[in-house]
Amino acid sequence: MDKSSASSLICYIYLTVWSKVANSESLDFCLTEDLDIKCSADEVIVMESAMFGRMEQGRCIRENEFIGCRNDVLFMVDGWCSGRNRCNMKVSEELEAENTNCRSFLRMYLKVKYSCLKVTIPDIDHCNNEAISLIGQEGAIPSHVTDQTGCGSKRSPWLISAMSGQIIELNIIDFGSEIIKQRQNDNNDLLLYGYIIDGDTKTSISGDETRKRHLYTSLSNQITVDILPRDIRKADFIIMYKEIGCPDLSPPVHAWYKRDGNQAVIGCEWSQKTWHLSCDGRSWSGVVGNCSEPVLWLVCLVSVAVVLIVVVCVIGVVCIKKYRIKQDVQKTMTLQRLPGQGHYDLDPNIEMASMLYLPYKLSEEEQPPPPQQQQGTMSDPHRPTSYLIPQDQVVNELTPIRIWERPLPDLPDKPLASSIVASCNTVRSGRTPGDGDEAVGISDAKENNNNGNPDE
């Protein structure tokens, strides 16, 4: 805050604070009369001026002689009345002793001007070693109340709170200004009235020659004030407190809020709409609109989320299905061994190598029935008797067989071509040779033999 704005703020505070001291009243009290002033129960007397002498002709002075001499006795009347709910005293020789401007044989009177100031009067039952919370945007704390009730002392300090974003201004009406002047003339220290605690900061309240002045501006929205006893501070005073500034705003739904001193900006989260506000006293000046529901954005976000979930689920299903197919292929693989070969033909529907070498040995339960020996045909001398494994039969246990454990083939009794032709016919037909096949095989063999040996 710059110097010009601070000066404007202090002037504004003075105008608002002293405007509460309203309905000033002026009274004349003749010599030997009783000065009796009383305010309401929640108010205290604040003397604004007090003159003793021959100010003007009136009820106390009838003759029009030596008019105009006067003496300022405000500091004395302050000690009797200011800060109290009521004062009663006799206008006596004590005032005459302060006469330095009028002739002593002249008849004089006391003229006062005062106001009744509304102050905070706490419940005495709550002043029991705990802080006293002050409610309201502004108020006044008289030191005389602390002397009477104990409220506001170190054991039960005043707790002044404002709303978040606001600060607290303290002003003081010091009724000990004349005593301060005398102590300064005697080179004595200033009077200590109490302390202000603002967070971790502790500031002393001291007397000053200036009767009405600005005392303190808080750093936060909550401060504590404790007042020293009368025998230590030596004078009475009234502390005026007031909330300054605008409280923090609560932005509407789907909106953001930014504050810089007395300026604030509110904008929508889902659009470019903004509103500018300025603090005027304790309230914000400006208009704030509403931010619409972000339906389109929500729909877009939900749509993207749904698409991502679907893609992830599809990829997962495909991966799982591929894995299961691979497992099923490995379990349902059908092996077929060609006669005389140490490898197997796989199912043509399986996209794998067409030939796979797997030396194996069937268990006893899986052994096929022995092949029937063809009449007139010898076994292939180079291959063991062939047999087929049906495609729907699953080989669950594959055990390797060592080559030296395989039995030796039989010696051929007839030409090798007949055995080869018979075996090929058996493989082409896809079934075990029977009676019909034997005849075909024998005839084909004879024909081949005849073709191969024309002499026979």
UniProtKB/TrEMBL annotation:
Record's keyword terms, sorted: Membrane, Transmembrane, Transmembrane helix
Sample GO molecular function, one term: carbohydrate binding
InterPro entries listed in its UniProt record: Lectin_gal-bd_dom, Lectin_gal-bd_sf
CDD domains, per the entry: Gal_Rha_Lectin (cd22823)
TM regions (residue ranges): 295-320
Residue ranges of the region described as Disordered: 364-387, 425-456
A Pfam family annotated for this UniProt entry: SUEL_Lectin
UniProt key word Ubl conjugation: no
Gene3D superfamilies cross-referenced by the UniProt entry: 2.60.120.740
The keyword Lipid metabolism is annotated on this UniProt entry: no
Residue span, SUEL-type lectin domain: 37-116
Protein name: SUEL-type lectin domain-containing protein
